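Q: Could you fold this chain for me?
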Amino acid sequence: MAKAVALIEEPRSAVTLPLDVRGTDFQERVWRALQAVPAGSTTT
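A: Sure. Below is the predicted structure, expressed as structure tokens.
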């Protein structure tokens, strides 16, 4: 829990959390695209 809170408080930190993410091919492509957006930025 502490790692999750630290990541929220400082999103640019190098904390990595293990995730069990399952989705459709489309959802996984969207998640990868979202990960490419720098913290604090917006995109369309």
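A (continued): The chain has a mean pLDDT of 84.
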